[in-house]
Amino acid sequence: MGKYILKTENLCKKFKGDMAVNNISLSVEENSIYGLLGPNGAGKSTTLKMITGILKPTSGGIAFNGHPWNRKDLLNIGSLIESPPLYENLTARENLKVRTTLFGLPDSRIDEVLEIVELTNTGRKRSGQFSMGMKQRLGIAIALLNHPKLLILDEPTNGLDPMGIQDLRKLIRSFKGKGITVILSSHYLSEVEQIADHIGIISNGILGYEQKIDPKEDLEKLFMKVVSKNRKVG
Q1: If 0-12 CB within 10 Å is exposed, 13-18 middle and 19+ buried, where does residue 11 land?
Q2: Per-residue b or e along 42-64, where b marks 16 or more CB atoms closer than 10 Å to that residue's CB
Q3: Is the pLDDT of residue 232 over 90?
Q4: Whole-angstrom Cα distance, residue 162 to residue 153?
Q5: DSSP letter string, 29-80
Q6: In the predicted model, is pLDDT for residue 38 greater than 60?
Q7: Is residue 163 predicted with pLDDT exceeding 90?
Q8: What residue ranges carry the coiled-coil annotation (predicted)?
Q9: Given phi > 0 = left and psi -120 to 50 = alpha, else beta, which region is 33?
Q10: For FRET with 162, which of 18, 91, 156, 186 sits at 20 to 30 Å CA-CA?
């Protein structure tokens, strides 16, 4: 068993009396791809927003790289949650330049991340004219600028065509070789099954399953079992 880069302990988030995330305890190994599965509205995005500091937990704890999470840890966490944060009137390079200036990073990092996500040849094309897949990859490039140890991708294949999904899958797989741990949330079982090392299944705000992926396991059957059980709880 490897070192854990992220652990949550009994993490809860309540909105107006409704428990959206209910005592979730995740364990994410360093240099792995962790697939967070669950139907729409299961609590995946809410959990990831707490890990990235967008939402404050109602209760519970988060540990990052062996210590209690604090806002400085965001320097080591990259994320793409919901839609990519793009200035659509700017080119890919200009979008990244805004961030390198803000974070005091060298311009050489722009070329590095554009190469990683294969967007080096977009020239003067504005990002608003990009395909959905190109926008997603630019969003990931932005998340990679700060050399994160942990990259969080929330439903990154939403709206992509099969070619875009294949390209993104290949890109996500490459991150382990660069020493980047990935948390990938999705409701597409086959997507996660093809690239993840470990999975967690959330339903009704409850983490009902967390294990290393077993190629012999029928993931669809397992998913339906966990989701059905926790729906009854709700």
Answers
A1: buried
A2: bbbbbbbbbbbeebebeebebbb
A3: no
A4: 18
A5: ETT-EEEEE--TTSSHHHHHHHHTTSS--SEEEEEETTEE--GGGGGGEEEE
A6: yes
A7: no
A8: none
A9: beta
A10: 91
